[in-house]
Amino acid sequence: MLFLHLSDVQASVGDVSSKRPSALDFVGKAKFDAWSALKGISQEEAQKRYAQLVSSLLNEQVEQAGESDRAISDLEPISGVNLSKKGKIFWIELNRPEKYNAITWEMYRGLTKAFNYASKDSNTAITVFAGVGSYFCSGNDLSNFAGVKTREDIARIAAEGAIVLDEYVSAFVNHEKPLIALVNGPAIGIAVTVLALFDLVLASDKATFHTPFTTLGQSPEGCSTYTFPMLMGHLKAAEVLLFGRKLTALEALERNLVNQVIPAPAFLTESSKLVEAYSNLPPESLRLNKQSLRSVHKEALLQCKDREVKLLAERWQSSECIEAIQRFMSRKK
C-alpha cells in the first residue's frame, strides 16, 4: 500500500525534493527511501506504472472473489445446509428450521465434506458453524433409525452410523482453521458435545445446552468424555453428560463451554462483527497457532473419538436405546 501511495505521489508531484528524515523517524525515513527509489522516473511513466499497479490489484481482487465462488461450487449442495463464502470466512449454516436443524445421515456426510474442504481451502481464514431459525441444532435426527424392523437392520444402521459419526467428529479434530460456533438457540446432543472442539463459541442468551444421552439409552460422543471434564471438572461434566442437566447460556459460560453470551436481539449483528474482525487477522498465523494449540491434545482426542464411536455403535443396538427411539417415534405420529 505504501508503494501504491508513493507511485501516485511520484505521478502527481515528481521526484522527492525534501531532506531525509532523522534515523529516529522510522516511518518518515521508510517513506523517504521508498519515494527516493522512484527518483528519475518521469511523471508520465509514473502515471503509467500507477495505472498498471491499480489494474493488477483490481484483477487480483476479482480473481480472489472468483476463487471463493468456485470453492462453493466445488461442493455438492446439501439438503438442509447453506454453504457460503464471505471474504475469508467459510460459512456453514444448518437450515432445517422446521425440524429444529436436526442432522440426517445425508447432512452428516455433506457437513463432513464441507468442513474438510474449508480446512484445506487456501482462501479461508476462519470457518463458522451456525443455525438458521430459533434452534442452533437439535442433534441427531432420530428418524435416521426409522424403518428398522429386525436386529440385522439395527446392526447395519449402527455400523453405517458409526462410520458417519467417526468421519464427522474427525473433521472437527483435524480442522486446520479456527472454528467459530454461533449458537443462536437451543443445542442438543452432538450439537453440544462438539462445541468443545471449537476455538470460539458465541451464544445468544436464548441458547440452552442439553445432552440427554442416558435418557435415550445412548452414550456421549464428540470427544466430550475427554473435553468436558477438562473444561468443567469431573463433577460438573458428569452432571451434564450422565444426568442430562440442561444448561442455560450463562451456565455454559461459567463451565467454559462458551466464550461470550450476547443478548438475543443483538446476537446476529454483534457475532458477525466479531467474526469479521477475527477473519482479518493474518491467516497463516491463525492456522499455525491453531495447529500448535490442537497438537497438545490431538492424539488423545482421536483415541477418545474411537472409543466413543465404538461404544455408541453398541448402544444403538441395545434394548434401552431401541425402546427409547420407539417411544420417540410413536410420540411423533
Automatic annotation (TrEMBL):
<protein>
    <submittedName>
        <fullName>Peroxisomal 3,2-trans-enoyl-CoA isomerase</fullName>
    </submittedName>
</protein>
<dbReference type="InterPro" id="IPR029045">
    <property type="entry name" value="ClpP/crotonase-like_dom_sf"/>
</dbReference>
<dbReference type="InterPro" id="IPR000582">
    <property type="entry name" value="Acyl-CoA-binding_protein"/>
</dbReference>
<dbReference type="InterPro" id="IPR014748">
    <property type="entry name" value="Enoyl-CoA_hydra_C"/>
</dbReference>
<keyword id="KW-0576">Peroxisome</keyword>
<dbReference type="InterPro" id="IPR035984">
    <property type="entry name" value="Acyl-CoA-binding_sf"/>
</dbReference>
<dbReference type="GO" id="GO:0004165">
    <property type="term" value="F:delta(3)-delta(2)-enoyl-CoA isomerase activity"/>
</dbReference>
<dbReference type="GO" id="GO:0000062">
    <property type="term" value="F:fatty-acyl-CoA binding"/>
</dbReference>
<keyword id="KW-0413">Isomerase</keyword>
<dbReference type="InterPro" id="IPR001753">
    <property type="entry name" value="Enoyl-CoA_hydra/iso"/>
</dbReference>
<dbReference type="Pfam" id="PF00378">
    <property type="entry name" value="ECH_1"/>
</dbReference>
<dbReference type="InterPro" id="IPR014352">
    <property type="entry name" value="FERM/acyl-CoA-bd_prot_sf"/>
</dbReference>
<dbReference type="GO" id="GO:0005777">
    <property type="term" value="C:peroxisome"/>
</dbReference>
<feature type="domain" description="ACB">
    <location>
        <begin position="1"/>
        <end position="63"/>
    </location>
</feature>
<dbReference type="InterPro" id="IPR051053">
    <property type="entry name" value="ECH/Chromodomain_protein"/>
</dbReference>
<dbReference type="Pfam" id="PF00887">
    <property type="entry name" value="ACBP"/>
</dbReference>
